[in-house]
Specification:
Rossmann fold; 23% strand; alpha/beta; disordered N terminus; five-stranded antiparallel β-sheet; five-stranded mixed β-sheet; Jelly Rolls
Length: 460
């Protein structure tokens, strides 16, 4: 059943302009045929003078409607000017929003204020999607229960951690903001990213913004979504960087979002099994270049899959590609940051990445590029974990949620030390981190997403 939608600014604009046209059409558009047709009547002249302003006002209201969406969650009457989203509203392409199927959710009504008096909750995580064009969006989420406590974790698209353990006291509500990047494979000019078959159904390549609500007791009263112009950080890399869609696999790229303020967007273009060469060939860099603008950043971490190339000039090709990417990013007045690959679990004592970390360090030094030495930091981290090292990995290369969270903290510390302009966008609670003194696995609690697949990601 389609949820009722209250008359929005767009509807009001249509109503006002329609009345304006009806009021003036008889005497102005048709005119007074008893007079000279060659000269507009006084009413016609007055109408013609007002028309541009009326149309301008309509365009402004329509633009506001298109760029801002206000969803009131819960089965009670929706707040004025908002779209009612009831617990039974599954996603429908016709209306362009709704909950993804397969999850159990319910509505709770506390009465009072239409916006905050009722909310949607559920167990084990649930998803809400809305169709949106490619771009960056600020999402303001109203959380809390007017007659109870709440504890909510929010992820976006394919498990990007955005808000972690947001607690509200009994009877309290808060509004939290996050910025989500929405993308499509199409590239301006007619080209597109050549997605792997398994990528096609992923949430981060569709035409929707999807939010995952999770935690011990999520309470979502409403969300407001608007397009924003903010700096963007593009992430390029492999399976240790990409937004892994399924538990128990995870990467630092989908955890690092949690450590930034909602004044910057993270666009993760990495994919499992990728090398620099294959990412160039699949148009992943071309897609990023098409969107890259002055003041943006590009963070690149490759090496795990590049080193499998046994060509005699493989390392030199890697180095040359890295240099060319740096030059292209700088030509667009954006900032490149290159990252050495983190070690595998077996690399605590014996390096497993050959000459690739040193190649990255060399390029950074010669071209004066900001460097995050994740290779060195990860080895410190693994030594610091000691007997608990296995609890950070899902296999010999890929991390679980805890491991990628710790690696993300290493990346954030690298940003703080080596990229001060980007560090200005770090969240207030993105505290300093010493890799040699990591967190305890037993103290880590980020709600597991509902989607899981034991199949190993590409790459090792």
């Amino acid at each position: 059943m389609t949820s009722p939608v209250r008359r929005s600014d767009s509807g009001i604009a249509h109503f006002v302009i329609r009345k304006f046209f009806i009021r003036h059409s008889r005497t102005t558009l048709l005119g007074d045929h008893s007079t000279d047709d060659s000269k507009p009547s006084t009413d016609q002249a007055r109408w013609m003078k007002r028309l541009p302003f009326a149309l301008l006002g309509l365009a402004s209201l329509l633009h506001a409607e298109e760029s801002t969406k206000r969803f009131d969650f819960g089965d009670a009457t929706a707040a004025p000017g908002s779209i009612a989203v009831r617990s039974t509203d599954l996603f429908d392409a016709t209306k362009g929003y709704g909950f993804e199927p397969g999850r159990t959710i319910s509505s709770v009504d506390r009465g009072g204020d239409p916006w905050g008096g009722d909310f949607i909750t559920g167990e084990g995580g649930f998803y809400f999607s809305t169709e949106l064009p490619e771009g960056n969006y600020e999402v303001a989420v109203t959380l809390g229960d007017l007659k109870g406590e709440s504890d909510t974790t929010i992820k976006a698209e394919c498990r990007r951690l955005m808000l972690e353990d947001i607690k509200t006291a009994n009877g309290k509500q808060v509004v939290k903001k996050l910025v989500v990047n929405v993308r499509r494979p199409e590239i301006a000019g007619g080209d597109k990213v050549r997605l792997k078959a398994r990528e096609v159904p992923y949430l981060h390549w569709d035409h929707k913004l999807t939010l995952e609500f999770n935690g011990p007791r999520p309470a979502i009263a409403g969300i407001e979504i608007k397009a924003v112009e903010v700096p963007t950080v593009y992430l390029m890399g492999d399976s240790t960087v990409t937004d892994q869609p399924f538990e128990p696999w995870n990467s630092w790229g989908q955890m690092v979002t949690r450590f930034f303020k909602p004044d910057i967007a993270i666009a993760n273009y990495a994919e499992s099994g990728e090398s620099i060469k294959s990412s160039l060939s699949a148009n992943r860099f071309k897609k990023a270049y098409a969107n890259l603008k002055k003041g943006d950043w590009m963070l690149m971490q490759f090496g795990h899959n590049d080193m499998k190339d046994k060509s005699p000039d493989a390392l030199e090709t890697y180095r040359r590609n890295l240099e060319e990417i740096v030059a292209t990013v700088r030509a667009k007045q954006a900032t490149p940051i290159i990252i050495t690959s983190m070690e595998r679990k077996g690399g605590v004592k014996t390096d497993t990445l050959g000459g690739y970390p040193d190649a990255v360090r060399d390029v950074a030094k010669r071209l004066n590029v900001q460097l995050i030495d994740l290779h060195a930091m990860s080895r410190e981290l693994y030594v610091g974990l000691g007997s608990e090292l296995d609890q950070a990995f899902q296999d010999g290369t890929h991390h679980n949620n805890f491991g990628s969270y710790e690696i993300a903290k290493c990346v954030i510390e690298g940003v703080r030390e080596n990229a001060p302009e980007l560090a200005a966008h770090l969240a207030e609670d993105a505290g300093k981190f010493d890799p040699s003194h990591p967190d305890k696995p037993a103290d880590f609690h980020v709600a597991l997403s509902p989607t899981s697949d034991a199949a190993k990601p590409d790459g090792n």
